[in-house]
Structures are given as structure tokens and as C-alpha cells.
Automatic annotation (TrEMBL):
Binding site for S-adenosyl-L-methionine: 16-27, 56, 77, 121-122, 139
EC number(s) per entry: 2.1.1.67
Compartment(s): Cytoplasm
Biological processes annotated in GO: methylation
Name this polypeptide is given: thiopurine S-methyltransferase
Gene Ontology terms for molecular function: thiopurine S-methyltransferase activity
Species of origin: Grus americana (Whooping crane)
The family this protein is said to belong to: Belongs to the class I-like SAM-binding methyltransferase superfamily. TPMT family.
Gene Ontology CC terms, in alphabetical order: cytoplasm
Zinc listed as a keyword: no
Length: 196
């Protein structure tokens, strides 16, 4: 499938911040995603107390849902506003501290300690900073990454995964010549080449 006009499309960090500032966040879902509920057993695979990663997390309600089940949740998001709204909307107390390894980055951590959200570019993260994960919930990250950065994104995600981790990925299917994205169209053959 031709990804047409999308191939060279770039959405800047400033544009994403602007979306949060103006409330143009149609990608945010107030309710938990039905596919996460449907495939939760695939993600957890009978295990408890997992470390679960939310790339480009925004203020995803599923983070609290999984934390309430006893899992540790780590997210990364460029918008500090989104992270503050997440804690406010769930009435969760948190503390904020700098991340010594990443200039200008901040870590927002719930007082209970089971939710840690990093405010920085996802490309500034590494397993030496955030550790490795048993599961990844990618509902809107791969499809939001600029097409030219997909390989870099997938390579990073692979380095953050434990040997037997589960990666749940939600993509969207449509004619990429009719919509410039994001969300971007990622053909299945590309997903296979990125993640194997």
C-alpha cells in the first residue's frame, strides 16, 4: 500500500504541545480502551506485579487502571500539562523531580510509587534510565511517531522490553492519501519489518 503524502510528514514537538494547550486532543479517550480490556490476558499472561510501559502516554486512564491492579506503570510524554492533568483528574498526589541523566526532563511519580511518568522526548529514554518492561501498551504512539522516526522508535522499544514481554499495539487502517495524519497509517508489512 502506498503511504502517499504521509511518508515525509513531520509533526514537531511544538505542534504536540499546542494540541494539549488548546485542548485539541481528540486522541485522548475518557474511557479505558476496549481492546486493552479484551486483550488484557495477552498483556499480563497470567503474571502479576508487572512493569508496564506507556509510550507517548498523554493522560491515558488505563495507567491508573493497571496501577490499581498492582502493576507498576511508567509513561513518557512531552506535555507536562498532560501529566499534571492525569494526576489531577484521578486525585492522585505526586511529587516531581528532575531526571539527572536528561537535561530539562522531569519525573512525576505518584506518592504510592507505582506510577512514574517522564516528561521528555521518548528518544531521550533508555533502559539504563527507566529499566526494562514486562509489557507495553502502545495505543497511539507508533501511529503518532513521524514516519521517518519509526525505525528509531521501534529499535528503542525493543531495547526496553524484557525477554518474555508482551507488546500490545493499536493501529488505524485508512487510505493514507485521504488523510495526512496523525494518526499515521502504518501498513502491517511495516509493523512486521519493525518488530519482527
Amino acid at each position: 500500500t502506498d503511504i502517499g503524502a504521509q511518508k515525509d510528514r513531520v509533526v514537531t514537538e511544538e505542534e504536540w504541545l499546542q494540541k494539549w494547550e488548546t485542548g485539541n486532543i481528540g486522541f485522548h479517550k475518557e474511557q479505558g480502551h476496549p481492546l486493552l480490556q479484551k486483550y488484557l490476558d495477552v498483556l499480563l499472561n497470567g503474571r502479576s506485579g508487572l512493569r508496564i510501559f506507556f509510550p507517548l502516554c498523554g493522560k491515558a486512564v488505563e495507567m491508573k487502571w493497571l496501577a490499581d491492579m498492582g502493576h507498576s506503570v511508567v509513561g513518557v510524554e512531552v506535555s507536562e500539562q498532560a501529566l499534571k492533568e492525569f494526576f489531577a483528574e484521578h486525585s492522585l498526589p505526586y511529587c516531581k523531580e528532575p531526571v539527572p541523566e536528561i537535561s530539562g526532563a522531569k519525573k512525576f511519580q505518584s506518592t504510592s510509587g507505582n506510577i512514574s511518568l517522564y516528561c521528555c522526548s521518548i528518544y531521550d529514554l533508555s533502559s539504563s534510565i527507566v529499566g526494562k518492561f514486562d509489557g507495553v501498551w502502545d495505543r497511539g504512539a507508533l501511529v503518532a511517531v513521524n514516519p521517518c522516526d519509526r525505525q528509531r522508535y521501534a529499535s528503542l522499544m525493543i531495547t526496553l522490553m524484557e525477554k518474555n514481554s508482551s507488546y500490545l499495539l493499536v493501529t488505524v487502517s485508512y487510505d493514507p492519501n485521504k488523510h495526512k495524519g496523525p494518526p499515521f497509517y502504518v501498513p502491517e508489512c511495516e509493523i512486521k519489518s519493525l518488530f519482527g
